[in-house]
Amino acid sequence: MPSLKDLRNRIASVKATQKITKAMQMVAAAKLRRAQLAAEAARPYAERMEKVLTNVAASIGSEGQVPALLRGGEGATHLLVVCTAERGLCGAFNSSIARLARDTAVSLTSQGKKVKFLCVGKKGYDILRRQFGGQILEVIDLRAVRNLGYEDADAIGRKIVALHAACEFSVATLFFSRFKSVIAQIPTAQQIIPPALPQRVPSGAPSAVYDYEPDAEEILNSLLPRNISVQILRALLENAASEQGARMSAMDNASRNAGEMIRKQTLRYNRSRQAMITKELIEIISGAEAV
User: Fold this and answer.
1) Residues 13-22: pLDDT tens digits?
2) 213 CB contacts (<8 Å, ≥6 apart)?
3) Which of 75, 185, 204, 220 lies in disulfide reach of 177, CB 3.0 to 4.6 Å?
């Protein structure tokens, strides 16, 4: 049975931990609003980019040569770009993204495909290296980046395009967590090479005919690499908001659990202390009666 000193030390330790978790919760709450606004602002541009690519790609048909980034959907080598956080203490945020990437890799491997990884974020690498250490091409560290911008996403996009040009893979899939709310983040897999463009739904009204200058093939050659960077930027911003939301929720739960532990340990301490006092009183009374 622990002594009163051990119980006091344990209660003090849990109280100190609770102060840390409450502080981290407040910091995450302060960062969440800004990250959420940035993620929501990036969504319309990324979705509109996909629509533009769909319209331009549909106009090519058999008139021009289809760009390399728009082909290769049935290749044997897949690149999985796994975007996670650089830090932990955010619940199941990192593990859920890594789990989705791992399940996808196992499924592709069972189909006879070859799988490679590009990890954006240290935590994803720490999880995946145990099972796929030899298949990880590179780990991109974003700890030095304070405010995510298009330049950071474009640097990653250029690396992916360069790997595709070197025939390192034929299909690339982006893994991230889409922000829905503070308590809900949705692990998402999005194919970016070739892009999973939405199908054009024919309408009853006559469609307009567009002439492109320069031609559609040249426009696609310019827009496709930019679209990869845009989708990566969207994924990073979604991750940033999801990370703060998950951390806020996790630290709130940790603070509640610490409070419950403090309550139980305090009750145990008081009972032990009362038992010791009662025991000493009994010994004093017994000694007095013996005299």
Assistant:
1) 999 999 999 9
2) none
3) 185
- How many CB atoms lie under 10 A from the CB of residue 88? 15
* Interatomic CA distance for residues 8 and 30, integer angstroms: 33
**Residues in contact with 224: Cβ distance below 8 Å, sequence separation at least 6, in sequence order:** 53, 67, 69, 70, 195
Given its phi and psi angles, is residue 167 left (phi above 0), alpha (psi -120 to 50 degrees) or beta? Answer: left
What DSSP designation does 195 have? B
> Which phi-psi region, left, alpha or beta, contains residue 91 (left: φ > 0; alpha: ψ -120 to 50)?
left
- Paired tokens of 151: 């330049």
pLDDT tens, 166-207? 888 889 999 999 998 888 899 999 998 888 776 655 555 555
What is the torsional sign of CA 247, 249, 250, 254? positive
The residue behind tokens 């469609």 is 207
CA distance 280 to 283: 5
Query: Strand 184-193 and strand 171-181: pairing?
Result: antiparallel
Q: Shortest CA distance to 183 belongs to which of 240, 128, 253?
A: 253
Predicted TM-score (pTM) of the model is: 0.84
Just list the catalytic residues. Answer: 90
